[in-house]
Amino acid sequence: MKNKTFIIAVIIFITLSGCNVNLENNEDSQNEQLSAEKDKNEVPKDLESIEESIEKIFLSLNGPASNVEETEDNQEENNQTDNSTEDDNEENNDEDNNQDSNQDNNQDNNEDEDDEDNNQDDENQDTNNAKEDSEKAQDEDVWVEIDSTINKLHYQWNGFTSSAMEINASKELIDNFSVALNSLTNTTLNRNQANSLIAASNLYSHVPDLYMLFDTQYSPEIKRLRHYTRNAILNALAENWTDSKEDLKNLKSSWSFYKTSIQKDRPERSNKLDYSIQELETVINEKNKYLSNIKGKVALNNIDVIEKEQKEEND
């Protein structure tokens, strides 16, 4: 009898132990699944890099760019540019000193005034030619940098598409971005600043929708605000007032929807952006492209500040 009782007890113990192991395995499996789903829904680094590259293009073209944090490479490039500028200034000073010395020598030697004027004209012409060559070289350097950024964009986009497809992103969204990226690439080959800025803005218009695919820390709608503001500026600068007013209309509609989520938490920031949009509307209606550029950049800055605050709150 005792043996039977012991055997039954052992069987019950083994059964309960097996159940506990199965429960632990199920919990581990569920946790792994939840973790995988969370990672899957997080915004991939490739998408953030894509947005940064587009902003870098705006910055290179002296367009209305969002705040872009400088990387170590950018800082090194800027330092090299500064050093190059200093060297150029020293060379120019040496040239000026040489010119002064030559003029003094000419005066001391009592050369004819006609010869002196001719020499000066030649020197001025040489200086102007050198300046033009320098400006052309700097301009070409900018486009080479843009070419490099766009080339990197294609790789970043290729890396991102796998993440987008994993969460069943629509074919239309993927195709639209691809077409806009190809269009930007072809447009920059013509080295036209205004057209390249419009093409870059068109590419950025798809960025908010790409962010919508993932679980973001804050609403990607703020990126749509940035797009409409920037597009309104660019169309105003091109004196496309009908398009600029349409961008402004979309901006106001998007802002009306978005500000309800932040108005209680950030009334001061909300009011600043509200007022800057009103001022932008005024100068666009007046068809003042100079002020449209200034007021638009003020609105862009207010958008940047709100987005930065939201990032800090969710970090």
Structural description of this entry:
By secondary structure, the protein is mainly α. Helices cover 83% and strands 0% of the residues. The protein is built from 11 helices and no strands. The chain is globular, with a radius of gyration of 31 Å.
Please render the helix and strand layout as text:
Layout: H1 2-41, H2 45-60, H3 72-108, H4 113-166, H5 171-188, H6 193-204, H7 207-211, H8 221-237, H9 241-258, H10 267-285, H11 289-314
Give the tags.
mainly alpha; 11 helices
What is the count of DSSP helices, taking H or I runs of 4+ residues? 11
Catalogue the unreliable spans: 29-39, 68-82
Beta-strand percent range: under 5%
Oligomer category: single chain
The count of DSSP E runs of length 2 or more, i.e. the number of strands, is 0
Any idea what the shape is?
A: globular
Structural class comes to mainly alpha
SSE string, helices as H and strands as E: HHHHHHHHHHH
Spatial separation of the terminal alpha carbons: 66 Å
Q: Report the mean per-residue pLDDT as an integer.
A: 79
- Rg calculated over all Cα atoms: 31 Å
Main sheet?
A: none
Helix fraction bin? over 70%
Summarize this structure briefly.
The protein has 315 residues and is mostly helical. The protein has helices at 2-41, 45-60, 72-108, 113-166, 171-188, 193-204, 207-211, 221-237, 241-258, 267-285, 289-314.
